[in-house]
Amino acid sequence: MAFAARQDYRESMAQDSETFPVKLQLPDHNEERTIQVGREEHIWDAALAAGIVLPALCHQGYCLTCAARIEGGGAVDQSDSLAYFPEDREAGFILPCTGKPRSALKLRTQQQRQMREFRKQKRLLAPYSWSDE
Fold first, then answer.
1. pLDDT digits (tens, 9 = 90+) for 48-72
2. Topology (CATH) of 9-121
3. Phi-psi label, residue 29: left if phi above 0, alpha if psi -120 to 50, beta otherwise
4. Stated pTM of the model
5. What phi and psi values does residue 38 have, to the nearest 5 degrees?
6. For the segment 13-41, what is each residue's pLDDT rounded down to a tens digit?
7. Rounded to the nearest 5°, which phi and psi values hold at 36?
8. b/e map of 63-96 (b: 16 or more CB within 10 Å)?
9. Which of 14, 30, 94, 102 is most buried, judged by most C-beta within 10 A?
10. Nearest to 69 by CA among 100, 126, 111
11. What does the alpha-carbon distance between residue 79 and residue 77 come to, in Å, rounded to a whole number?
12. Which residues contact 67 (CB under 8 A, 6 or more apart)?
């Protein structure tokens, strides 16, 4: 699909896809922002389009830099992630850079340290975890 110069890809997606409200709990100033995210859109991309810059490095669902945690339930499709485990889902962790909403969500952002510690405890892949523990 090609887009004309300056055409927002989100306009095209909105015609073809349902959207879900995603409330982001941001650590700066204890701020909450709600964005609309298309069913086939990555949460991180929708946040950026709304002017919210979340941390990320790989954009492949591997490094955990973008990690967030679901507050109060909800569903996220993580099939685009290179390394996402059932244990992550059970603990409520998601990777917004590759996560697509399947329901309304409330996410606590910037949970990379917590997700890495969780994975180390479970003996799962935890990139950029340099401690000896």
1. 999 999 999 999 999 999 999 999 9
2. Ubiquitin-like (UB roll) (3.10.20)
3. left
4. 0.86
5. -70, 155
6. 555 579 999 999 999 778 999 999 999 99
7. -100, 130
8. bbbbbbbbeeebebebeebebbeeebeebbbbbb
9. 94
10. 111
11. 6
12. 93, 94, 95, 110, 111, 112, 114, 115, 116
